[in-house]
Amino acid sequence: MGADYPHTDGIWPESDKYIEQQSQALTAEQVHKITCENAAKFYNLTN
């Protein structure tokens, strides 16, 4: 998936809908960890 410009294989601008559809079986905490916390830790953006 590319975020720097529209790619034909990307899901933007429907990203929110896609995440919601694909994570229905997960808790809000799990979704937050997947979409926010894991990336922040990977890129060392946490305090």
Short characterization:
By secondary structure, this protein is mainly α.
Write down the Rg. 13 Å
Outline: flat
Please trace the helix and strand order, writing H or E for each element: HH
N/C terminus separation: 28 Å
State the low-pLDDT regions, or none.
Answer: none
**Helix share of residues?**
40-55%
Provide the fold topology.
Layout: H1 15-22, H2 28-42
Describe the structure.
With 47 residues, the chain is mostly helical. The protein has one domain. Helix content is 49%, strand content 0%. It has 2 helices and no strands. It starts with 14 loop residues before the first helix and ends in a 5-residue tail after the last helix. The mean pLDDT is 84.
